Amino acid sequence: MSAWPCAASLTLSCVLCGCAALKPITPDANAEPPPPQVLLTIAAPDEHKRLLETHLDLARLAIVAPGETLSDTELRRLEAAAPAQARGLLATQGYMNPDVTVQREASAPGELPRVRIEVAPGAKSRIERTDLDLQGPLAEAAASGDASARETLAGWRAAWRLPAGSDFSDSTWRDAKTAALARLRAAGYASANWSSTSAQVDADRASVHIVVRADSGPLYRTGALVIEGLERQDERSVRYLANFAEGTPATEARLLDYQERLQRAGLFERVSVTLAPDPASAAAATVTARLGELPLQQATAGVGISANNGPRVSLEHLHRRAFGERATLHNKIEIGRVRQAWDGELASHTLPGLYRNLVGGAVERLESDTDRVTALRVRFGRAYDSQRIERLAFVEVERALVRPFATTLQAAQANADTTAATVNFHGTWRDVDSVILPTLGQSLALQGAAGRVHGSGGGAVGNSGSGGFARAYGRLQAWRPLGGNWYGQARVELGQVFAPGAVKVPEPQRFRAGGDDSVRGYAYRSLSPNVGGVDVGGRVLATASVELARPISAKLPSVWWAAFIDAGRAAASWNDWRAAWGAGLGLRWRSPVGPLRADVAYGEEIRQWRLHLSVGIAF
Selecting from 3.40.30.10, 3.30.1330.60, 3.30.420.10, 3.10.20.310, what CATH number does the domain 126-215 have? Predict the structure, then answer.
């Protein structure tokens, strides 16, 4: 360190020694606070005034014991010490040459002494020059041409928080050093430390020259993986989730990713991944995964209500080691006013490469205002899960039975029973600050399918509606803090079915719009083509939404109000598409399990208000 902080510290220590004359008392919650011993006025900018009022001895005389008085000799000593003490305090904020005057003001006999302190802080010190130096294995590897080491070193230098021209203070200086070491350690140099640091201050010029030198220490590489806490689960499930081999650089991101994958696996309630920080074994550092297992089986019953599906009850069962194998069996039954469904899936635990194999089935019956659609599905596929990316590729066979409530010939022709076989891909990419309650980031969900459908009625004469088709769908969402406690959210949704007009594309593969997560102000799935008085799925879809929200008050930070505008619909073709608009206001409770939303929206097309209730967030 340079000479000035040491001198300032010594001066401040000497000044504070005089505080021994002020006898501290043991706080008593019921006692009246001691009366002030002096009337003190501090004339300084607000930020400095608060600092001096908190730490200056003349401002802390209330700690004198009740019944005692401050002698004139002691007061004069404190007055004499105040300028040096104030300069030391202001130096911590980067003001190295302040002008401080202390003056005793006249007071009437019997009144408390009056003291006035005037502070002109002067210019704040700025960084004139920064010399960053690194020694140790990282610097040696970079000098020898190692591309990864060069990138790490360049990133470390670029991330330094006090470049030339920055304001200087004790807190920014401390934070910059802490962040620089943390970055080296996160890059795999777990024993990185400072060799020397100094901030050389020129008080007359209000400038600072920073000189810092770090020693990276060795690059830690992963060695043996030690697993603790397993009782019922297979060790291979834990090792495959690591997804790194021995000898891999033990970066903080890699270890945190492993820990998060273990948490997301659904097998453990407690997870901790640590690295042995011994420089002697850095070339093969032990990685320890400490685990607490969840029960083998879990059953959950639930009740809920939403504007889309009305009231509902559900029963869910999960077996984490189905049939004694490394597999999870999940079944869910839901019974509601407009939707009844069973979903089942048998999925392997994570395999090498973070893949999972799965087989699943579903039966769903869904009613709209004009028809009832029953769908039966069987699928076989493979999934990939990581922190930012989820992928699912599968083959599916689907049977759709459509029963319109209207009985016109036109409605019957538009709603054929179908059987389809498709090859599908679903992918989600997300980069958000919180998966459950995002306020910053974006996510993109993409779906694609191609297959062939066999119609069993409802087609034109001589045509059953059979043929090939393809389907594409995308949903982009973004969240941004806007300042002043305002937050913005936007969504764009597009979809299209590609098929000849005579092909009866299965109803579940088509699109409908309207409802809580679509266009508010309209009934669930109501913004779609109408044929013979019956709503049918469209072949194209486009919706969008913009929302502004902020907390209702500082005392209720988890309760927000929001204003929004939605637009869109599903249509038979882009020539038939036109936007239906909805707008309204809502309340949000940002609960630990997801946002609870209550919205009141006005549908411009139907000229009616509608209440929407929902829980959770869709990616």
Answer: 3.10.20.310
Nearest 10 degrees: Cα torsion 607, 609, 613, 616: 50
Q: Between β-strands 530-531 and 534-535, what pairing exists: parallel, antiparallel or unpaired?
A: antiparallel
Domains 126-215 and 222-293 alike in fold: yes
End-to-end CA distance of the chain: 51
- Total count of residues recorded for the chain: 619
State how far the Cα of 223 lies from the Cα of 246, in Å rounded to an integer: 5
For residues 474 and 491, the answer to whether their CB atoms sit within 8 Å is no
Residue with tokens 């005392």: 555
Contact residues for 439 (Cβ-Cβ < 8 A; gap 6+): 433, 479, 480, 481, 487
How far apart CA 571 and CA 578 sit, in angstroms, is 8
Q: Is the separation of the CB atoms in 100 and 82 below 8 Å?
A: yes
Classified by CATH at the fold level, domain 350-361+368-615 comes out as Porin (2.40.160)
Please spell the DSSP secondary structure of 553-572, one letter per residue: ETTEEEEEEEEEEEEEEEES
Q: Tell whether the torsion through CA atoms of 164, 165, 168 and 173 is positive or negative.
A: negative
Q: Is the pLDDT of residue 532 over 90?
A: no
Task: Quote the pLDDT of residue 189.
Answer: 96
Task: Name the residue ranges covered by the structural domains of the chain.
Answer: 3-120, 126-215, 222-293, 350-361+368-615
- The helix or strand, by DSSP H or E, that contains position 346, with its residue range, turns out to be strand 339-348
The SS3 call for residue 158 is: helix
**What is d(CA 346, CA 348) in angstroms, rounded to the nearest whole number?**
7
- Report the candidate in 8, 121, 103, 7 with the shortest Cα–Cα distance to residue 58: 103
CATH class, range 222-293: alpha beta
Q: Which residues of 288-324 are buried (b: 16+ CB within 10 A; e: fewer)?
A: ebebebbeeeeeeeeebebbbbeebeeeeebbbbbee
Task: Give the pLDDT score at 1.
Answer: 40
pLDDT at position 350 over 90:
yes
Sheet containing strand 39-43, strands side by side: 39-43, 114-120, 99-105
Q: What is the mean pLDDT of residues 468-491?
A: 96
> What pLDDT digit, counting tens, does each position of 312-328 carry?
899 999 999 999 999 99
Cα–Cα separations (whole angstroms), residue 434 to 382, 388, 457, 594 = 26, 11, 48, 10
- State how far the Cα of 207 lies from the Cα of 144, in Å rounded to an integer: 36
Q: Which two tokens stand for residue 503?
A: 């092909």
Percent of all residues in the chain with a pLDDT value above 70, rounded to a whole number: 88
CA distances from residue 607 to 339, 472, 578 in whole angstroms, order as listed: 27, 32, 16
Computed from CA positions of residues 330, 359, 240, 327, in that sequence, does the dihedral angle turn out positive or negative?
positive
